[in-house]
Amino acid sequence: FKGVEIEQAQAEQEDLIVVGVSQLGSESDWRSAHTLSIRDALTKDAGYFLIWNNARQMQENQIKAIRGFISQRVDYIVFAPVVETGWETVLREAKDAHIPVIIIDRMVDVEDDSLYTTWIGTDAQEEGKRAGRWLERYLRKNGRTLEEINIVVLQGTIGSTAEIGRSRGFQNIAGYHDNWHILEQTTGDFTATRGKEVMRDMLRRHGDIDVLVSQNDDMTMGAIEAMQEAGVSYGEYGEVTVISFDAIYDALLLIKKGEINVDIECNPVQGAYIDNVIQRLEKGEPVGKSYIVDENVFTKENVEKFLDGRTY
Ligand code: GYE
């Protein structure tokens, strides 16, 4: 840590704002885009000195990183929590040290919301509902409203906001349809490798899957490989309808090819919001308690016009 301390001392002299960032991991393409967006916004030119920590999807690493930021006396802590629970103690330590905490991407579940300053993220429950509503419309259009529909769900990291919200939102809509059967929900931890393994097992266990709901594109890519290897057809012309989340560039290409039926966007471009919040706090201006970024739904009908100029 010595090197960082010397640099940090220099940064303070140069009047840079010192920000400790605890990124939860590098599990997905979405995460890479999220990281890039933060790094692009909080540059030295913009007046920031970043201390970056990648927690590799482990809460204990995040807690350790945040404690480190507190003892280094950073000006702000920015962190994307891997799961929702278990943050009270460390957030209280930050509060006692008078260091503002900006939570990004996923949310924390704490009773006392004065433990953080602001949250910038996406509405995961709404994303889940959008998936369900799309399926309702799709089945109606294809005259399948009364058919028995077998669904499997590849879930993200259990206990993360993205998993909780997307699961609940989709289940909420599924609850209105007695003929929708969620055969299984299993986590693939938001990675392509696990997504592939879990899908391979689900295909072995269930012979008649109509719909795959995969809570991020990386797992979807893995699941697609598993379906190809098992000789199961999927997508627009296949047996298994594919619903995915995130809408990264490579997934949009698969929509165009008809391999993914629909992708519910989750917007990783949050860097400018963080910069904005910090700048307001620096001037002593009030900030909102939460900021929700805009999101879209992509299908073959509209994907073309978004492909150009897409940055992630
Ligand atoms: O959907 C997934 C990533 O928390 C919204 O985390 C984020 C999710 C995103 O690993 O790809």
From TrEMBL:
CC terms in the record's Gene Ontology section: cell envelope
Protein name: LacI family transcriptional regulator
Pfam family, one: Peripla_BP_4
Highest taxon in the source lineage: Bacteria
Occurrences of domain Periplasmic binding protein (ranges): 20-264
Major localisation: other
Annotated GO MF terms: carbohydrate binding
Keyword Mitochondrion: no
Record family assignment: Belongs to the bacterial solute-binding protein 2 family.
Localization of this protein: Cell envelope
Keyword list, A-Z: Membrane, Signal, Transmembrane, Transmembrane helix
